[in-house]
Every structure is written in structure tokens, then in C-alpha cells.
Amino acid sequence: MITVLLFAQLQEEARTATLTINEDVLTVNQLKNQLINAYQLYQVNECMIAINEEYALDIDEIKPGDTVAVIPPVSGG
Prior knowledge:
Elements: E1 2-6, H1 9-14, E2 18-21, E3 26-27, H2 28-39, E4 48-51, E5 54-56, E6 61-62, E7 67-71
Parallel strand pairs: 1-7
Antiparallel strand pairs: 1-2, 3-6, 4-5, 4-7
GO molecular function, one term: nucleotide binding
Keywords: Molybdenum cofactor biosynthesis, Nucleotide-binding
GO biological process, one term: Mo-molybdopterin cofactor biosynthetic process
């Protein structure tokens, strides 16, 4: 099981702060596609992804037991 943590607008759109994904191994890109298809989180392609508190690339693998944070862009002024 993979734990996915959502923040800011993503939490509001998914109506939850935490999701669980039951997959053996998938890439960050595959996870993004699942979040888009299952939860319509289209903004996920603009987000930073961290696996176990380390930033990840789209080709990095996510394994069972990992915690993934989906961090939306921050704007300020």
C-alpha cells in the first residue's frame, strides 16, 4: 500500500488529505496519471512530488510502504 498526502487545493478537490493506492510498484508518472483519472486532479502535473521526504522525478519508482507527498506550486506576493 502506498500512502499519498495531498495539500492545499488538491485536498479540497479530492475531499481528503490522504489517499491509499494498492499497487506493487509504479512510477511517479503513473501515479500522476492515476490521480488525474480517478480524482480529476489535473493540477498534479504542475506539482512537486516527494517520496519518503525526498523530491522525485517522473521516472522514479514508488514501492509499497512509501509515503508520497504531492506539493502544489506556491504563489506569493
